Each structure stands twice: as C-alpha cells, then as structure tokens.
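Continuing the series of single-chain predictions for the mutant panel. This is the parent chain; the variants come on the following pages.
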Amino acid sequence: MATINRQQQLQAGLRAIIQPEVTAQTITWPLLTQLATPTLVQLLELHGLFMPFEQQLSFTADSLPENLLKHVPDAPLIAALNAKIELVPGNNLTTTELRYPAAETVRRPIVATLRQLGVPEGKLKLSATPKPVKATPESENYYLYAHTPITLEQHLAALADLQKALTHQNNPLLQKSLLLSAFVLTEGFLKSQLVAVIPNVAANVQGHAFQTLVVRDISQKLRSPRGRADLYHLFFEGQTLPTIPHFELRNLLAHDNAATTITKGQVTYMDEDHQLTTVPFKAIIGGLRGFAEHISH
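Parent structure:
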C-alpha cells in the first residue's frame, strides 16, 4: 500500500498556508518577503521548526536555538536568535531562563531560513522541473489536479501515516499541525475526485479564451466549500456532498490555532453552538477516512 512521505506532508501544508496562482504553463508563489510574519512562522512549523517566539524557557541545551534548529545546519535564524535572546532570572531567582524575541524582529533571517529549506516563491514553469518545484503542492487549481490525481488507496495510506505520527508525538503544536494536514489532505482528495469526473476542458471547449474562462470558474469553485458542493452536485448525478467531519475544527486549526487545546490524544474546541467539544484523534481520522470512502464510490 502506498504511504505518505515527508514531501507529500509538506505539499499538503503549503496548500493550507499559501495558495499559488496556476495556469497551464506556470505556477506563481507569493514572495516570502510579502507574507505576513505569522504566515512565515507557520511555514517554519510546517518544516518541524517550532520556535518559542516571545516565550521564556528554562536554560537547557534543548532550549538553545542551535538545538531547536538542529535539522537545518547553519540556518540564518540561529545566529539571529542567539543575538537577540535575553538571559533573565527564573521564577525562583536561583535559575536562569531564556527570553526569546518576537518573530517580527527576525523576519529577514526567517525568510532566509525558509529559502534554505526550499520553500517555493515567484513564477515557475510547470513544463520544467526546477529544484524548488519538488517541494510544491498540487494547487487548488484545475490544471494541477488534472495532472496529479490522488487515488483512494494513496489517501487512506496518508491518513494512516498521520494517525501513527499523532500517537508517537507529544508536542501539542506539532499534533495540531498533523491534524490540520489530515484535513488538508482530505480536501485535496475531494478536489482530485471532482477534477477526475469533469470532462476534459481542452477536448470539450473550443477556443483558448473560452477554455481559460471555464478553467478559471472551475478553479474558483474548487477553492471554497460551497463551490465544491456545487461541482459535486453537478457531476455526481445530483448527489449532495456530505460535510467534511469536524470542519469547524479544521478552520480553527488553520486560522485560530490557540482556540484549540490538546490533552491525552484528544482535541477540545468550541463548536458553532458555542459548546465545548472534545474529540479523540482516532475519531477525527476515522471520520475523514469514512468521508473519503463515501465520495469515492
């Protein structure tokens, strides 16, 4: 059975954080220098780099920048953090703690580190395969989903790998990132299923201008839950697209991470009725698995 690799996880995370503009020939990513600082921090976390910006930590070897960034030797962010970290007395006045700076104060080193990690930016040709493209995701766009179909077997294997990673991970921030990846992968699988049943635009629409309009409309619909529901109803014989389970949680993980808490393999969040809801990781992944199996039949 196919399994998800690190590159596929990065691709899924990129879809959740930044959305490129895609045509039949090119893919254009926003410049990293144009992204908001919280977005840059999300990209670091996507690569497993969880920086304690504006936090105060016990002075231990594990809390030093070179160890937090050990997976990226010589990362520009290491020197920048070492220069700005303050040593302050601990709560009991007998220990020393590290006070990390705000992310905004080290934006340039963050950007440099992300570039070192190969995060894509700028316009790239889809016909070629320059090095940065290897880490780019399938876009929320008709063209790339048409060229990179996702099978049910691949998707279920990806969810299984994420569930396994969740059970072996104790860092709540990383657990939230893994949960978000599960939702993003599920949305990607849905988009792939939709594009697979849409008649080929080039073969069925005459004229480049009309093809462009049709593809643009499809791509816009793929980007929103309502648009995806419309496409599903249209191309799946009038059927109603079921809601992705726990979609409220997905939105909180993507846009208000602090509104969720994780304890003992469960995540707690406020639902749309303003009631606290607690769901085990296993139930979330199971619900997403059931959703994928439903829409693929």
